[in-house]
């Protein structure tokens, strides 16, 4: 058993192996309510039904340490929503499921804790029509810097990576960088360009999954954030990632314990 529940929160353990608890037959049993054990499908089914019944957009937040299986859980939830929203193997539902392969190919890398770690966070907005069919989707990433084609000569690039310009009034002075500074500049530029490539991929995917006119504003959102990691030397970026995870965990704890307290108080009164 890899799933359990604590109030409205689903707790999942990464089994680090393929398990036979997913697929069309299992999806069908949860859709028909013949299976009632804790599962990602239950969470996705609840979100879908509440969206359709109350006409209120829903969100599914997935958190955990690096390697906990957050991205796989998001894909499993998307598979269930795709089945509810159409189930076609050639339509928009199929395209949404295939986006994960593209983004992971360019956005994942090996770390000390995970051989296939997501190096990006993504927010997937799946839109539904009034009849409950998927009519489009949109992906957002935390990357805000847009890279563009440099269009410069090799000499200019080498100069930019090895020197820096200091401007004082109308005068400017070029100063050579140290080897470490030049390496840092090179790495920063590489990250900048790769961020541009990744943003371009997201943009192309969003064009393919563009929301049609039949959508009414109903949507279910899945948030797959960066995983918590702690190294001997942590960057400011890692600090922000860990802080966001801690705040999210704090929200879960407060929300869960508050609900449990309310249930206990109601039983005592």
From TrEMBL:
Gene Ontology biological process terms, A to Z:
actin filament organization
> Mind telling me which SUPFAM superfamilies this protein's record contains?
P-loop containing nucleoside triphosphate hydrolases (SSF52540)
Q: State the Gene Ontology terms under molecular function.
A: actin filament binding; ATP binding; microfilament motor activity
Q: Which Pfam families match?
A: Myosin_head
> Coiled-coil stretches, from where to where?
none
Check the record and name the InterPro entries matching this protein: Kinesin_motor_dom_sf, Myosin_head_motor_dom-like, P-loop_NTPase
Annotated PROSITE patterns: MYOSIN_MOTOR (PS51456)
Myosin motor domain span: 1-269
List where the protein spans the membrane.
Answer: none
The positions annotated for binding ATP are 64-71
One annotated Gene Ontology cellular component of this protein: membrane
Q: Which UniProt keywords apply?
A: Actin-binding, ATP-binding, Motor protein, Myosin, Nucleotide-binding
Q: Which family does it belong to?
A: Belongs to the TRAFAC class myosin-kinesin ATPase superfamily. Myosin family.
Q: What is this protein called?
A: Myosin motor domain-containing protein
**Per the UniProt entry, what species is this protein from, by scientific name?**
Punica granatum (Pomegranate)
């Amino acid at each position: 058993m890899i799933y359990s529940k604590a109030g409205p929160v689903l707790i999942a353990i990464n089994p680090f192996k393929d398990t036979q608890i997913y697929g069309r037959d299992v999806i069908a049993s949860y859709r028909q309510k013949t299976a009632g054990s804790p599962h990602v499908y239950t969470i996705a089914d609840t979100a879908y039904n509440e969206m359709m019944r109350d006409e209120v957009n829903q969100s599914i937040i997935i958190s955990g340490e690096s390697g906990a299986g957050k991205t796989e859980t998001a894909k499993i939830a998307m598979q269930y929503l795709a089945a509810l929203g159409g189930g076609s193997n050639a339509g928009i539902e199929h395209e949404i499921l295939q986006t994960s392969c593209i983004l992971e190919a360019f956005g994942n890398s090996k770390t000390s804790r995970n051989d296939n770690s997501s190096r990006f966070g993504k927010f997937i907005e799946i839109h539904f029509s009034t009849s409950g069919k998927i009519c489009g989707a949109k992906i957002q990433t935390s990357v805000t810097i847009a890279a563009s084609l440099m269009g410069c000569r090799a000499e200019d690039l080498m100069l930019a990576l090895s020197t820096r310009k200091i401007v004082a009034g109308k005068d400017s002075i070029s100063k050579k960088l140290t080897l470490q500074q030049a390496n840092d500049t090179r790495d920063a530029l590489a990250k900048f360009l790769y961020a541009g490539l990744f943003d371009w991929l997201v943009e192309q995917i969003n064009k393919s999954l563009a929301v049609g006119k039949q959508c009414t504003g109903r949507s279910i959102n899945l948030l797959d954030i960066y995983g918590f990691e702690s190294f001997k030397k942590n960057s400011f970026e890692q600090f922000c990632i860990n802080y966001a995870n801690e705040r999210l965990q704090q929200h879960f704890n407060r929300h869960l314990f508050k609900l449990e307290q309310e249930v206990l108080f109601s039983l005592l009164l």
